[in-house]
Design a protein that fits this description.
The chain is built from six helices and seven strands. With 271 residues, it is of the alpha+beta class. 36% of the residues lie in helices and 17% in strands. It is flat and about 55 Å long. This is MYO10 protein. Pfam families: FERM_M, IRS.
Length: 271
């Protein structure tokens, strides 16, 4: 969740989380301790966000004119552009290495301050920091919101489904744009294989997503666990789930995680 950017928090907190992870993995700081790669400790997108944006592309008409000039000049223009791109990419890679080294140094300094902290304490401190995000414990789904009636273009959001409410987040923002307790939801279901409809009182929200079934299953599970009736999907007769059916929660972008169930980065074998 943290490494993939699904826990919005400050860069200072992200560095502290990385230091706590090092303390949990390796105990006290030592120059001989094995160092994970930075991307296993710190969200890579934060470093990439520090890099300058790519240069503005000229209009297509100008690009075609330059292409003709390049062809007439025997390809010299294309060679010059390729050289410029290679130089720019090399500068960006160098800048990324510098930013990575600076961030790792800051993480190590915070790690040194944790001397004497045991692994359980480091894990508890890590989770306590993550729990400061109001959306902690929710399952997040990547969706594009289409308002009904149709208005502006789709808005890319996180759909957070928790035990008490459904929330909408702007990616990277800690506070929800809106939140709906289950008592306000009048119906929900699949409009088609890639569109999920959520009716909240007098509002219809249409979400384009590849996880329609997972969202519906999770909503049904929370409603059932709260003792609420199962709401039918469109064109589906109302049914009641079997009382003995176990609740199996589908996984979204960041699955519901308890204090000792935080997902590890790819390639890590530690808990």
């Amino acid at each position: 969740m943290v490494l993939r950017g699904y826990v919005p928090t400050s860069e200072e907190t992200l560095q502290t989380l990385a230091a706590l992870r090092l303390q949990s993995l390796n105990s006290d700081f030592s120059t001989h301790a094995p160092f994970p790669r930075l991307e296993e400790l710190f969200p890579p997108h934060v470093l990439h966000a520090r890099l300058p944006p790519p240069p503005h592309q000229p209009p297509a008409k100008c690009r075609r004119a330059r292409l003709r000039m390049g062809l007439l000049a025997g390809g010299l223009w294309g060679q010059a552009l390729a050289k410029q791109r290679a130089e720019r990419d090399q500068r960006l890679r160098g800048r990324l290495r510098e930013e990575g080294a600076s961030t790792m140094a800051a993480i190590v300094e915070k790690w040194k301050l944790l001397q004497g902290m045991g692994r359980p304490e480091a894990m508890a401190a890590y989770v306590a920091l993550v729990r400061e995000w109001p959306g902690f414990g929710s399952t997040l789904f990547d969706v594009d919101l289409h308002m009904s009636p149709v208005g502006a273009g789709p808005q890319h959001l996180w759909l957070g489904i928790g035990a008490k409410a459904v929330s909408l987040y702007k990616p990277g923002e800690p506070e929800p744009l809106d939140s709906f307790c289950y008592g306000r939801i009048s119906s929900f279901g699949a409009s088609d294989s890639s569109t999920f409809r959520l009716s909240v009182e007098d509002r219809d929200l249409l979400f384009e997503t590849s996880q329609v079934d997972e969202i519906a299953q999770l909503l049904n599970t929370y409603l059932a666990s709260a003792g609420a009736r199962r709401l039918p999907r469109p064109q589906e007769p109302p049914t009641s789930p079997p009382a003995s059916e176990p609740a199996v929660l589908p996984q979204g972008l960041c699955p519901t995680a308890g204090p000792w169930q935080l997902r590890q980065p790819v390639g890590s074998s530690h808990s």
